[in-house]
Amino acid sequence: MAERDKGFGRPKVIVVLPAYNAAKTLRITYNSIPMDKVDHVILVDDGSTDETLRIAKELSLEAFVHSRNFGYGGNQKTCYTEALKAGADIVAMLHPDYQYDPTLLPELVAPIEADEADVVLGSRFLRGDVWKQGMPWWKYLANRFLTSVENLVLGLRLSEYHTGYRAYSRRVLEEIPFLLNSDKFVFDQEMLVQAAHLGFRIQEVAVPTRYFPEASSAGFSASVIYGLSILLLLGRYLLHRMSLVELKQFQCFATRYRRAE
Fold first, then answer.
1. Domain enclosing residue 184, as ranges
2. Which string of DSSP letters, residue by residue, matches 20-66?
3. In the chain, is it the N or the C terminus that has fewer CB atoms within a 10 Å radius of its CB?
4. Which of 121, 108, 105, 119 minimizes the C-alpha distance to 4?
5. What was the pLDDT predicted at 5?
6. What is the CATH number of the domain that holds 197?
């Protein structure tokens, strides 16, 4: 993949693709990425059983392969670890299932490039038309409930916490102990709780989303488990914040990937 010609002092933007059986949508997702705004793309294949890896090789993507399926959070741990090793200043996560619009990557990373935010979330709810986009009613209600609880606990006013389209500054990934997080879907929420607790600036940008058979989407039972895991996470965080339990997961630390001053 050709890298863009960066201007002096321009942050290095790396896009990570956490992939699992994404053969049907990987090519269209990759081809929609605005390469003039991105320095590099990294794919992590989480033990796919389809043609994901073959297509990644055809696209000349840098790919890291898990020997088995570690889970969504486990996939992201490898994504961020390898992006930091590659010298990323900004890391944007894009699902390769084409559910989120890759052409909006410049809008997603812009607040971090301007030093106005440390974390940027692509929110489906800022547009106000999630019904038209095809979100199931039960997912809508669950999203609204969990977002309200998370805002209350964290003291924020975000429109959505449950987006899979997000960007992080290098500093966030260096200081948040993400390797201590879950390998499951609650990983994303753990990242936001950690970021809020450590005082990082979180912003949102409006993004549309697509719902179609090839796009990954958790079923009802998996969504219930996901919701309960978020409530458990918030309970653990409150115990830590009240100094009733000390949890390393919510402490700041510097990783070995931090650049020398």
1. 13-249
2. SS-TTTHHHHHHTS-GGG-SEEEEEE-S-SSSHHHHHHHTT-EEEE-
3. C
4. 105
5. 46
6. 3.90.550.10
